Every structure is written in structure tokens, then in C-alpha cells.
Amino acid sequence: MSFNIGLSGLRSATSDLNVTGNNIANAGTAGFKQSRAEFADVYSASVNGMGKNAIGSGVLLSNVSQLFNQGNINNTQNSLDLAINGNGFFQTSNNGDVSYTRAGYFGTDRDGFMVNNFGYKLQGYAVDGNGNLQNGVINDLRIETASQSPKATTTLDQTFNLNSTNKVSADWQSAYDSFLAVPANAGNFDGAKAAGNATFDPADPTTYNSSTSTNIYDTQGNAHVMSQYFVKSGPNEWQMNVLIDGRSPSAPQLSAPAGVEPLRYQLGFDASGQLSGLSSVDSAGVQTPIAPAGQFTLNGWNPAAPDASSVSGWSQNGASSNAGGVVVDLRGSTQFSSTFAVNSVSQDGYTTGQLAGLEIDDTGVIFARYTNGQSKVQGQVILANFANTQGLTPVGKTAWVQSFASGEPVVGTPRSGTLGALQSGALEDSNVELSDQLVNLIVAQRNYQANAKTIETESAITQTIINLR
């Protein structure tokens, strides 16, 4: 019996050495979780069970468990390297074979799919054609590396403040006085405003009070400058003159001089300085109210490019404006006693762009940045967790697969529930503590030597018995 006891001790000590050696070998493996050899004593039983004075029969290896405590997070220079700070595993797929890992070595393959260093595809929530995340639908994550197509401007949102202390221009006042000098025009203030239309000249800053410009885009991504000139035409009344590229947005002909005849709009403000009305103004000075107040649509804009050989100095650039026009929203604009200022401006058009970089936030959302200043959501990384992580089956390559003991995976986005946060441009180091493992190595070696001594002693006793005569 002592031989068997000693042999079981040798086998257990060997297993302990192997486990410790494997830990030491993987001290530099990202995402590795150290293992621990767990032993139990053995007692032989008779038909009637074991007595209270039973002598043990040795030791056995009861389990090799892995310790899933957090490893140190080490920053890298690769933005697609990912580390999990907290609970959870990355979910990867190898042609449908799902595995889980804490090693965040990720990059892209030739088709743009995010893969780890073994070519397994990272799983997450993809986006639809409009860039909306498809939550709940797990797919292979793919980075769109192609150039971003241009988009024509469809909306322009703008808020500004017009200085209420500005005076009505002399030209407007003169036109107003001349108009009222005709008795039939008495009380027709709109007609007086029309009389002042001819005084506006974008090249002469004395003919307007304030101006601002912003870029808008045609269907081919060409930028065009939309300029707005504001002329105070009366108490709480302003005329806004709109030009695109210094020419009339509605100029129908490019073969003849188009001039700089602007589109005109009348802005009205209430006593508290809030925008209260908006009307279009035709060449005869007739105003047509626009609803909703503060929002109008630029229709019929004909994008053009400078052309010295053309009579008008312009020629068709081959593109067009958005088919539905450009919706300009001025709601929220004010007329207060302060300097003219554009408080906010945004438009949804852009030129073509190349992929400039990727960013992944701590919730796993992948942002692509383009050279045209745009950004686009490319997907969201998911994490999986298990009720019993000790029940996961290790399959090598720093990966585990689900087992009956682990239970079903609980899938979610980083920082949701008990799942940890992601850190981009970083890797989780192995959680092996080398000093502890070296001590364990010495202990395992001593155990092996001691069990070998047990066998040696049993052999000497047996030889003594054999030598009896």
C-alpha cells in the first residue's frame, strides 16, 4: 500500500509542477488566467464503509481551476487593441464556432472584419444602412474602410442674434419717406420696404448691418458658400438677403449674366426679441408668410462653378442640389441689445472622405473618423458573462468555450449590468504573479522529493523482509 501512496504523491506533485510551469510559461500572455491545482486525500472503503481509524490511500488531483481575477491593463499603440476592466469575455466566431476570450489582440482582415490574432471574428451589434445600431442582433463586426460618399445638404440649422440697437439704414429711411410722400401709399409699410430692395449691394458693407456665411454641399460633394446679409428695415423688422457663391440661388440661366439678385426674406421679432414671423419677398416687394415661422426651403438652387469663358462667368458643374431643396431653420434666433453673433450653425452635407481613424469608447461603440470631418458609428462590441466562469472549458489560444457547468452566456454591452468597461488601445496582462509561482515551484519540488523518499523507504523495508531466512 505504501508504494501506491507514494506513487499517488508523485503523480500529484508532477501535476502541481505542470500547472505551475504552465503559469510561469504564460506570465507574458495577454488575457491569460492562472490555474491552480487542487488536491484531495483518498481513503479506501470496505463493504461496510470506512472505520474511524481508516488509513489514507494517498492523494488525487481533484480539479485544476482557473482564477479569473483582473490582470493589469497595459497601454499599447494599436487603437483596436481592447482590454476589459471588470467582468466579461469577448465573443469570437470561427466560421460559427463560438469561443470566449479576454485577450484583446484585434485588427482587421482584408474584408474589413475585426479579427483576433488567430483570425476569429469579433462579435457585436452591427449597424444598418442609416448608421443605426441593430441592438440584439449579433453579427461579425466589420469596419467600412471604403471612401465615404458625399452627401448634398438637406438641412441647415442656424440661430443668431441681431443687434436691436442698429439703426435703420439711410437708404431704407429715404425710400420709406419717399414712398409715404405719395398719399396713396400711406400706411403701406411693406411697399416702402420693397422700395428699399434696390439699395442692397453685397460688395458695399454700408448697405447692410450684419452678414454671415456657411458652406453647403451639392450632390457631388462640392462646397458652396451660402451668405446671408441682414438689413434692418424697421422696428423689430429685418430683411435677410441670401446669395450662394455670390450669385442668386434661383438664377435659371448660366449663359447670360445672372447678377447678384438675392433671395429676400423678411424677419419679424416680437417685443421680447424672439423671432415671430418669416415671409418671402418677391421682386415687387410682395410678402408671402411662411409657416412654420422661422423655417423656409431653398428650392431650385443650380450649383455652378466659376468659368471665365462663360458670358455670365459661371457654368454648370455637373452636380445638382438636393432634390427636396435645403430646409433652413432659423427658429431660436433673437433680436437683443447685443452684438450680432451666430450662436449655432450646423448642416448635414459633406464632401467625400477617407477613413482617418477609429475610436472605441468604454461602452464598445466603434466610431470611424473621416477626412471630411464626419464620423460614423460602425458597430458596438458585446461582452458575455457566465454564472459559473470556473465551469468554462479551456480550449487553448487563450480561449474558453461554454459547458454545461458554466451555464448559458449572458450577453450585453460593456458597462451594462455587471459587465466591465472597455479600454481601447490597451491589453489586459496575464494575472500570473511570478514570485508566487516560483515559491509554488519550490514547494512542488519538495513534495516530489518527499514522496520519492516514501517509495525509497518502502523499498528498503520490503528488501529487509525478503532478506529474512
From TrEMBL:
The keyword Membrane does not apply. Residues 83-135 form the Flagellar hook protein FlgE/F/G-like D1 domain. GO terms for biological process: bacterial-type flagellum-dependent swarming motility. Belongs to the flagella basal body rod proteins family. Residues 4-33 form the Flagellar basal body rod protein N-terminal domain. A flexible structure which links the flagellar filament to the drive apparatus in the basal body. Keywords: Bacterial flagellum, Cell projection, Cilium, Flagellum. It is found in: Bacterial flagellum basal body. Residues 191-350 form the Flagellar hook protein FlgE D2 domain. Residues 423-468 form the Flagellar basal-body/hook protein C-terminal domain. The lineage of its organism: Bacteria, Pseudomonadati, Pseudomonadota, Gammaproteobacteria, Pseudomonadales. GO terms for cellular component: bacterial-type flagellum basal body; bacterial-type flagellum hook; cytosol. PANTHER family: FLAGELLAR HOOK PROTEIN FLGE, FLAGELLAR PROTEIN. This is Flagellar hook protein FlgE. It holds the Pfam family LlgE_F_G_D1.
